[in-house]
Amino acid sequence: MVKTQDTISTVLKKPDLGVFVRLRFVRIRLDHISEISVFGFGLKPSLHRFTVGTPLNQTTPDPTDTNIVEIRDVSKHYADGDVKALDDVSLQIAKGEFVSIVGPSGCGKSTLLNMIGILDRPTSGRVYFDGHCVDPSMNLDQLRSEKIGFVFQSFHLVPNLTAIENVQLPMLPGKLAPSARVARAKALLDSVGLSDRLNHRPAQLSNGQRQRVAICRALANGPSLVLADEPTGALDSQGGRAIMDILETICHDSAATLVVVTHDETLADRSDRQIRLCDGKIVSN
């Protein structure tokens, strides 16, 4: 745990996912927060706190819906409509399914992942999450924090924090007591074989170990949907297989849906279903 009341200001950026997250801790310890700001998902910084907007559990879903995500007739245009990143895309992803998104560079994979993860708004069309039609009046920050876990190719761990502290970050805005946060983070790290690395900082870990910490962080709040953008891209083939074994096992055991963007056909072959994109359109599903 953090022993001194340091000021930590860290900016994590993933341009191809359209994610800009700034976590600001002003003279804090992890067990005593004086300020935490989480803002910016999508094209413009969002100043929403976790109490702004309508919570997901106060909207009315379709009780017969078995899909975690549904995208209906979604298009996404950039540069005054000249660039069509997505072109009239429709798909459904069932609860508990393992789906891979594949296709050549620039085909719209990351943009589609943006839509699935509610990180960007479509130019046209609708996105549904767990039976709810997503709209700006909802508390989207809270939805993402509680329901969706993100795993990135470049890990995006906070370098000043230890493994167990990094895993606790998504839990900070919640209602868990500090002791419960620590216990959950420790249990997650134990489950991926890092019980002896709890107090190691990212620089003291291998790439494979860093990605395991990142997976634990993504799972910290028990999400129903886990999105992984090239999760094995920074690893060798053996390390990549180990990471996918961990992701698949944990998501299966927790009944979470797993969606992976990848260029690796071997990895894609492990999924229940492949969504193949070309020029912003789904060519096979």
Automatic annotation (TrEMBL):
Alphabetized InterPro entries for the sequence: AAA+_ATPase, ABC_transporter-like_ATP-bd, ABC_transpr_LolD-like, MacB-like_ATP-bd, P-loop_NTPase
Keywords tagged on the record: ATP-binding, Hydrolase, Nucleotide-binding, Transport
PROSITE patterns: ABC_TRANSPORTER_2 (PS50893)
SUPFAM superfamilies linked: P-loop containing nucleoside triphosphate hydrolases
Matches recorded under Gene3D superfamilies: P-loop containing nucleotide triphosphate hydrolases
Keyword Nucleotide-binding in record: yes
Chain ranges of the ABC transporter domain: 69-285
Xref: Pfam families: ABC_tran
Broad enzyme group: hydrolase
Record's GO cellular component terms: membrane protein complex; plasma membrane
GO molecular function: ATP binding; ATP hydrolysis activity; transmembrane transporter activity
EC number(s) given by UniProt: 3.6.3.-
Family statement: Belongs to the ABC transporter superfamily. Macrolide exporter (TC 3.A.1.122) family.
Name of the protein this chain belongs to: Macrolide export ATP-binding/permease protein MacB
Lineage of producing organism: Bacteria, Pseudomonadati, Planctomycetota, Planctomycetia, Planctomycetales
Encoding gene (name): macB_3
